[in-house]
Write a structure and sequence with these properties.
Nonspecific Lipid-transfer Protein, Chain A; alpha/beta; 35% helix; Metallo-beta-lactamase, Chain A
Length: 442
């Protein structure tokens, strides 16, 4: 097996009878102008796809599933590949690809899918929407965890028991979301350290022979969020933590190919990335979009509210609001930084301008993005283009995460009352963030 590094979370697995390209995103900003690639490309898609038999997409986040990439391909290129995606209830990604003319295989959770006489792939779900890919070619195996939040030792050992110890593990090595406000660098430093510890844990529990750090070659590229770059991990940080891994660390630069059997020299890639990370302060920054008037925001909110209650039970939402643990859909006070106005908003109470303090601060275009897109709140938490107090972040999540849940096929209904596992996972994830925020809360 050979692995060719393309960019960010995109690699090519070369086996004897298949070439699998993963997560192609090569240009343009994602997450509502919040992220950019450290280095764009490749530009020659014809050369890139010349030997590709399959394209695997891990999940719907735009740095992994890029609609622009798939829309750019020619009819001949569409016919030459088969796209692989995890089996989901909503089939949203699959439907998009099929309408574009692609052949798509929906991969059942944890089941082997042969893509050649000797090559078998296994795609497994992780938490709400992430998935991993295990590639086995008869001689060697690779496990691509990309963004999967796997940091439980018992769960990792269980995964190793099902798939075996991989020859190489591919995994994210830096944080990739909002980690406190401008003044909370301690949160980001702790998050970066925790990510390195997670990589080391994954390697040890999976008993991987080598680890390829990837899926973090981006920077926070907006004027509103570029402070988040002050704690990100670099390949140097991964190497400094090498003694904790007990495995070889393989660093690769775009266009480099590595035979999994062969020794690897990290020096060229280390020089490449070292220069790029040093240049992050000088890389281009994007500016917020045009301001949105209060009238247009209120119109957007009314459409958002109608959509919420078209997909979710008002009665269950009301119960969630009055439940002392859930405390859902409480009014959130948002300072619109560009308009210098405070609005109070919730689907239960409406939209109105108010005077006084606020829980959260953001640009009016970011709030409009939440109203216009089911994935809008998820995007905001990733791009970090906002400021929030501890209580403010909690209220914002409990009020607006409903759109993200609906986008994953999870709705508030009577059946939800009996999904204690789902409720626990949601509250646990929120609790982890707010616990880390607490020491720095005003």
């Amino acid at each position: 097996m050979k692995i060719e590094f393309v960019n960010h979370a995109s690699v090519k697995f070369h086996t004897a009878d298949a070439v699998i390209l993963t997560d192609p995103w090569y240009r343009g900003a994602v997450f509502n102008d919040g992220w950019d690639l450290l280095v764009p490309g490749p530009d020659d898609l014809e050369a890139l796809l010349s030997d590709v038999t399959h394209i695997w997409v891990s999940h719907e986040h735009p740095d992994h599933f890029s609609p622009a990439f798939f829309s750019e391909l020619t009819e001949d290129q569409k016919q030459s590949v088969t796209v692989l995606f995890q089996k989901t209830r909503d089939r949203r990604v699959v439907s998009f690809l099929e309408k574009k003319g692609f052949r798509v295989i929906e991969m059942p959770d944890g089941e082997g899918v042969p893509v050649g006489p000797t090559t078998e792939l296994v795609c497994g779900k992780s938490e709400f929407y992430d998935s991993y890919l295990h590639v086995r070619d008869g001689n060697q195996s690779a496990l691509n965890l990309n963004d999967c939040p796997m940091r439980d030792a018992a769960g990792l050992r269980k995964l190793r028991g099902r798939l075996g110890a991989p020859d190489v593990l591919l995994t994210q090595f830096s944080y990739a979301a909002w980690k406190g406000g401008r003044e909370n660098r301690a949160f980001r430093v702790a998050a970066a350290r925790e990510k390195l510890e997670t990589v080391a844990l994954q390697v040890r529990e999976l008993e991987a022979k080598a680890v390829l750090p990837f899926a973090s070659f981006v920077y926070f590229s907006n004027e509103e969020n570029d402070y988040l770059n002050d704690g990100i991990n670099t390949p140097d940080d991964v190497l400094e933590n090498q003694t904790a891994h007990g495995a070889d660390i393989v660093l690769m630069h775009p266009g480099e190919t590595w035979d999994v059997d062969a020794p690897h020299d990290n020096a060229p890639a280390l020089r490449f990335w070292r220069d790029l990370y040093a240049s992050v302060p000088a890389l281009p920054r994007r500016t917020p979009m045009a301001s949105v008037s209060l009238k247009d925001l209120e119109t957007g909110f009314e459409a958002y509210k109608a959509q919420v209650f078209q997909e979710n039970s008002y009665t269950i939402a009301l119960l969630a609001r009055h439940n002392p643990v859930l405390r859902g859909f409480l009014p959130v006070r948002i300072l619109l930084t560009d308009l210098e106005k405070v609005i109070e908003v919730s689907v239960m109470d409406g939209f109105r301008e108010v005077e006084g303090g606020h829980d959260v601060a953001m640009h009016s275009s970011s709030l409009k993005f939440i109203f216009d897109n089911s994935f809008g709140y998820d995007t905001l938490t990733v791009n970090g283009r906002f400021e929030a107090t501890l209580e403010g972040f909690s209220k914002l999540t409990r009020s607006f995460a409903i759109g993200s849940l609906n986008g994953m096929g999870i709705t508030l209904g009577y059946a939800t009352l009996f999904r204690a596992d789902l409720i626990w996972r949601l509250l646990s994830r929120l609790g982890q963030v707010t616990k880390k925020l607490k020491p720095q809360a005003p």
